[in-house]
Amino acid sequence: xxxxxxxxxxxxxxxxxxxxxxxxxxxxxxxxxxxxxxxxxxxxxxxxxxxxxxxxxxxxxxxxxxxxxxxxxxxxxxxxxxxxxxxxxxxxxxxxxxxxxxxxxxxxxxxxxxxxxxxxxxxxxxxxxxxxxxxxxxxxxxxxxxxxxxxxxxxxxxxxxxxxxxxxxxxxxxxxxxxxxxxxxxxxxxxxxxxxxxxxxxxxxxxxxxxxxxxxxxxxxxxxxxxxxxxxxxxxxxxxxxxxxxxxxxxxxxxxxxxxxxxxxxxxxxxxxxxxxxxxxxxxxxxxxxxxxxxxxxxxxxxxxxxxxxxxxxxxxxxxxxxxxxxxxxxxxxxxxxxxxxxxxxxxxxxxxxxxxxxxxxxxxxxxxxxxxxxxxxxxxxxxxxxxxxxxxxxxxxxxxxxxxxxxxxxxxxxxxxxxxxxxxxxxxxxxxxxxxxxxxxxxxxxxxxxxxxxxxxxxxxxxxxxxxx
Length: 470
Known about the structure:
There is one protein chain. By secondary structure, the chain is α+β, with helices and mostly antiparallel strands. It has helices spanning 121-126, 128-131, 135-157, 198-207, 245-263, 279-286, 379-388, 393-397, 400-405, 420-428, 458-463, and strands spanning 16-29, 32-39, 42-48, 68-77, 92-103, 161-162, 180-182, 190-192, 211-220, 231-241, 268-269, 276-278, 302-303, 305-309, 314-316, 330-332, 359-364, 367-374, 413-418. The model has no long low-confidence stretch (mean pLDDT 94).
């Protein structure tokens, strides 16, 4: 059984260890060899003195960076001038007794031990498994795990139930283009990958679970931006029954605040509790519904969280802001399931643009990092909203399962879905979502590593009863 490098600092001088990992840096000084050995927990210096070694002295000339090696040795204290206070293992080193090359490495296409000499994005993504060896990228992915772990424990302690919803679902007009999956067993029929688990989580409220969450993959065929990944993204999907909007905001604000204080102690909040901002006010003042409220934009540790509330229920359809599936006049500001303010329901027939909603957006340093709403739980009101956004009868029929469920007793409910990729990107101070995702696509929706999307065989197409246009 190997020892992890981080464990060596807690062992006594003279303790024997077995370490396995990658050669981060290798240098020779005469007959001596110095290996900076890297594993998933850190880096430690290994000193190879031929006269001290019982196995492996004869292969010292063969060792190269990124070789996978096994080292058996003893912990010794570094000399005073060689100690590195800025490193976890900077006060010790390993005197090698045995050295074995487990596997060799070709010369990497870019440097692993010096990320300052940055490769271009295409090369990084083609060799993403090497890019993830960079300390910064590895730390980003580990922090992503810690955030998810924190959320999972926090919500479980609040009596939430984690439930996985289907990936193969139904194509319904929900605002973006669907990814379609042809059915072999039902020729001419298609599944769709979910743009979000929106309908499922509301149906779970009908089912009586009351408090639900999942780390949900979402699939939308839309163009990329620096803060939007093409293809898929992940969100902390949440829904609750018998809640008011204020209940949702308080729970999520408490959870995010606690997570930041635990995992990012160097960060500081501009304001606690978070400001509650009115949509019309921020649009008038900033011409944006996600303003950057930081006092010092150059301070990487300043966090300006806020809530934006009182959104309009509908937005005019434009080429720049088009809700796919809705008519040409009105589209939902958030989604078609968002509840209007009770006091504004009277304007639905006469002045729909005047109606405000129970939508809530969570913003941070100029980014929307989460959004949700109190939902409609009345089927007649839901159908009226569909009429106002121009749904045809055929489109309404695509939701007959949903309306049917609403005839069996529906609790008032609402939720939110913080975006994990974007939230992590902002907290890390990264400029692109790709730095917060293990295997992202390029901006034009490709995976250079897997070389996808790719062609398929004619046999596969025939089996699915598909023909390609020429």
